[in-house]
Amino acid sequence: MLNIALPKGRLGEKVYAMFEKAGFECPSIKENNRKLIFENEECGVRYFWAKPSDVAIYVARGAADVGVAGKDILLEYNPDIYELLDLKTGNCRMAVAAPKGFRDDPSRTLKVATKFSNIASNYYASMGREIDIIHLNGSIELAPILGLSDVIVDIVETGTTLKENNLEVFETIVPISARLIANKASFKFKSEQIERIVASIAEQMKEG
Ligand code: PRP
């Protein structure tokens, strides 16, 4: 049985279609209910819907053999997994954003609000910039508006959230997309199925 952790939501539905085409169909997953686990014994596959930021945990610890996680989560938590494929979907970027017209004063410690403390720390450390990290769990855009921070480090997809809160991108840190990941032991012991998935999804992406 191959265990696949899917990120709950639109991205998950899109990537399920990729696994389905690779020969791991599981029609019951399309039932509109609150169930989290779906199995198709015939194909030897079991899917489960996980919170997107938790997929890498299931995979790293072997509760899932493969899964789909955002590059943001992989950079932030550095889980012990194999990254097999860039799925070129779920595209966005990790960026520094600030109130319009913001100018950085290098003589002052920069206050940075973020959910991605490691990404932010590494980014500023690479520039030798001294910062004070304020770790928040969501609605990061509030922080500079309320004077809690000077800037934020966050995900920007359409840019709408920034725009509607009078913020703008100051610097782009790294582009982000969804990645196919595998548990290291599973990659060895279930290599045939995992390689079938990688080859099929790579082919599907080529076909567009
Ligand atoms: C994410 C991110 C931004 C927003 C960016 O938030 O943290 O707030 O999406 O998207 P946009 O550029 O298309 O507007 P999410 O919806 O995950 O909620 P959060 O505020 O709880 O982090």
Explain how this protein is built:
The chain is of the alpha/beta class. Helices cover 32% and strands 31% of the residues. The protein has eight helices and eleven strands. The protein has helices spanning 10-21, 55-60, 71-77, 117-126, 142-145, 160-164, 184-189, 191-207; strands at 2-7, 37-40, 45-50, 66-70, 82-86, 92-99, 110-114, 131-135, 151-156, 167-176, 178-182. The strands form two sheets. It has a six-stranded mixed beta sheet. The radius of gyration is 19 Å and the shape is elongated. The two termini are 29 Å apart. Bound molecules: 1-O-pyrophosphono-5-O-phosphono-alpha-D-ribofuranose.
Label this structure with key terms:
6-stranded mixed sheet; elongated; 32% helix; 31% strand; 8 helices; alpha/beta; 5-stranded mixed sheet; 208 residues; single chain; 11 strands; binds 1-O-pyrophosphono-5-O-phosphono-alpha-D-ribofuranose
Q: Identify low-pLDDT runs.
A: none
Q: What proportion strand? A: 25-35%
Helical run tally: 8
Major beta sheet summary: 6 strands, mixed
Measure the end-to-end span.
29 Å
Q: State the share of residues found in helices, binned by percent.
A: 25-40%
Task: Give me the count of strands.
Answer: 11
Main structural class: alpha/beta
The gyration radius over C-alpha positions equals 19 Å
Cross-sheet strand order for the largest sheet: 2-3-1-4-11-5
What is the H/E order?
A: EHEEHEHEEEHEHEHEEHH
| Hetero groups | 1-O-pyrophosphono-5-O-phosphono-alpha-D-ribofuranose
User: What's the rounded overall pLDDT mean?
Assistant: 97
